[in-house]
Amino acid sequence: MPANLPPQYFEAERRYREARSVPEKLEALKEMLAVMPKHKGTEKLQADIKRRIAKLKEEAQRGKKGGGKGYSLYVEREGAGQVTLAGLPNVGKSSLLAALTHAEPEIAEYPYTTRKPQPGMFEFENIGIQFVDLPPLDPQFMEPWVPGIIRVSDAVLLIVDLASEDPLSQAEQTLEILRSYKIEPVGHPVRPEAGALVAEKPALLVGNRLDLPGAAENLQILSSLYAGRYRVLGVSAREGTGLAELGRSVYELLDIVRVYAKPPGKEPDKEKPFVFRRGSTLLDFAAAIHKDFVERLKFARVWGKNKFDGQRVNRDYVLEEGDVIELHI
Question: Of 157, 162, 111, 164, nearest to 138 (Cα)?
């Protein structure tokens, strides 16, 4: 049986060949595996990619233990998306991570408290989104693995301190440092294959410490200057102000949809959605249920916002947010 690999596979394969870091290679391999049709014709290729992923993970773990030159880290993905926190020293990234998730990072008034990736899971409605705090961005010295983790994440939060003397300068420095590593934050969703040499990364500009004097005025200045490029949000990690809006904004930036499985004759489980990139089809959903369902699928019925109940759809149907899907094999 021919493999019939889609164009997205070859684009991810090209990014794998051009990748320079372990995180970038891992992300490309995972993309290749995700977009590949799951049938007998691709079983050997699937196994080969899984072996390469396992080997790279072992390499990342050796680097984590060994340290020194060539040191690299890989943050295992969890949840519906991975979002990195990027900013200059002492802007409150760790405090924000603690406020958003159950993580307990070391928090101190002095800079450079964060020395390694610190993941935490943010609960948004019925899904989890992984946030990863990183060591601060610094034009003088920065851990060499930090840009690689940002490049392979799904989105990045650009954190500034609204109570500082010049949060505008903080935002500009943050952008300049990321661009020096060929990372271009953009204010809209993008696909991973968008640009190989320069990684476009969906981003929000987040002003922390909104509860402190002068912060509200600085937020207005940031909003007026960056409104056309990024969504600008003000939050207070200490008081919790703006965190709910931040969570919703992150979900929208990830450009994903939640759909629900409905076994014939039964009710759907609305607490356990399947999460896909926007633009995914019924075949992607069938493969997520079971790899054999792709070939055996006859049709499906969908309950959704823009359809009549139980509408019959074809295999190329594009999934929409909130769809309830009943597969018929």
Answer: 111
Residue 106 to residue 112: CA distance in whole angstroms: 10
Question: Which CATH code is given to the segment(s) 82-254?
Answer: 3.40.50.300
Superfamily of the domain at 257-328: Beta-grasp domain (3.10.20.30)
Residue 278 reports pLDDT greater than 80: yes
**What would the two tokens of residue 322 be?**
């909130």
Give the pairing type, strands 183-186 and 199-208.
parallel
How far is it, in rounded angstroms, from Cα 190 to Cα 303?
28
How confident is residue 25, by pLDDT bands cut at 50, 70 and 90? confident
pTM: 0.77
The residue extents of the domains of the chain are: 7-66, 82-254, 257-328
